[in-house]
Amino acid sequence: MKKRIIALLLAAAMILALAACSGGTSGTSGSGSSSTSQSGGGTSEAKPDATEDETPSTEEGGSDLPFSPDNPIELTAAVSQSEIQGDFDTMEVLANYAEKTGIHITFQEIPASDRAEQLSLMLSSGEVPDILFKMSVGNADQARYAAEELFVPLSDYPDLMTNLQRWFDEYPTAKDAVTMEDGKIYGAPYILAGDAIRAGSKLWYNSDLLEQTGYSTPPKTTEEFYDYLKKCKEIDNNGNGEADEIPLTSASIDEIETILYGSF
Fold first, then answer.
1. Is pTM beyond 0.70 here?
2. Dihedral (CA of 92, 96, 97, 98) sign
3. What is the largest CA-CA distance in the chain?
4. pLDDT, averaged across the chain
5. Interhelix angle for 92-101 vs 2-16, to 10°?
């Protein structure tokens, strides 16, 4: 049991990094990841019978963890998946985590349009995976099902959630937003700290075309940007021998205007 709880918390910490690509603000937008105390339909206790002295080391290469690549453990996670996201079970970053830690996560991918209904069914039936990732578990549900010991309080294990603690130190309002009335934290927030992440519209460049047009980095002025687009239009990138290249595309003209506002 102790082995499973520790692996559960560390796995939750690992996949929190993916939440940075999920949208939201620089505070919290619902719960990014919640750890549950059940696997499938089998109920288990929410807390391990471990003392402070039994807390394992999480240092890289530490030998005190009760799992390793040679002693793996399997976990399950439900994840809200948008139409443009790939298969979580084949994501390279998660495969690397599994190889290094021995923690293997099988994802139940739920279409974002069905998220609310599926979450409600899971919680009401008690048939929940080990981790709820990007499932937007509201405060009311967290409080209710934590009282039923369905959720593991992440705040009970600060030594295993050092990265999350660091973010809480830097963004205390985010910590306040996910702290329940009992003073415990059951889910992690979305914290979007990078300016590039916060920007709603961005320009994406084809690195091969940059090189072909003589630019080692993206254009830095509107004059360079215009020159770059002209050169892209003159390159037969699709190789069909026709002058049909479109150097700039967007979902709407509004997005292009938004991107370029700061240049004028």
1. no
2. positive
3. 72
4. 78
5. 150
